[in-house]
Each structure stands twice: as C-alpha cells, then as structure tokens.
C-alpha cells in the first residue's frame, strides 16, 4: 500500500500541486464550472488517509 501511495503522490505532485484545476460540467442544459487550487497537503485528504506527521510532510 505504501508503494501505491508513493506512486500516486508523485503523479499528484507532478500534475496537480500548485496548479489550478477547473472542472466543467453540465447542469441540465447549462455548462457550469468551478476551480480548485491544489496544494501538497491535499493529497492525503483526497486519498482518505490520516498521516500522523501531517499531510504536508508526506
């Protein structure tokens, strides 16, 4: 499991950390969007894992 988390973290860091991600979706017939700015500390939260030293140190 640790190897999978480490691999996933590398991907997340390369493609999402310190970047704004914009999601576009359709609500009935209208296009809508929202943006999220990702930080390194978001990774553990998105995985649903608690890390006793804090997510930012992962």
* Cα radius of gyration in angstroms: 14 Å
Shape: elongated
Low-confidence stretches: none
Average pLDDT works out at: 84
The topology string of helices and strands comes to HEEH
Helix content: 25-40%
Number of β-strand runs = 2
Distance between the termini: 14 Å
Number of domains: 1
Beta-strand residue fraction: 25-35%
Would you tell me the structural class of the helices and strands? Answer: alpha+beta
Keywords:
2 helices; single chain; 31% strand; 2 strands; two-stranded antiparallel ribbon; alpha+beta; 34% helix; 58 residues
Chart the SSEs and their pairings.
Layout: H1 2-15, E1 19-27, E2 30-38, H2 42-47
Antiparallel strand pairs: 1-2
Give the structure's gist in a few sentences.
The protein is α+β, with helices and mostly antiparallel strands and 58 residues long. Helices cover 34% and strands 31% of the residues.
Would you write up a description of this structure?
- The chain is an alpha+beta fold and 58 residues long.
- The protein has one domain.
- The chain contains 2 helices and 2 strands.
- The protein has helices at residues 2-15, 42-47, and strands at 19-27, 30-38.
- It has a two-stranded antiparallel ribbon.
- A hairpin with a 2-residue loop joins strand 1 (19-27) and strand 2.
- The longest helix has 14 residues, at 2-15.
- The radius of gyration is 14 Å and the shape is elongated.
């Amino acid at each position: 499991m640790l190897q999978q988390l480490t691999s996933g973290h590398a991907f997340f860091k390369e493609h999402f950390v310190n970047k704004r991600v914009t999601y576009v979706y359709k609500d009935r017939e209208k296009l809508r969007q929202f943006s999220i700015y990702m930080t390194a500390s978001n990774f553990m939260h998105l995985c649903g894992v608690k890390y006793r030293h804090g997510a930012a140190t992962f």
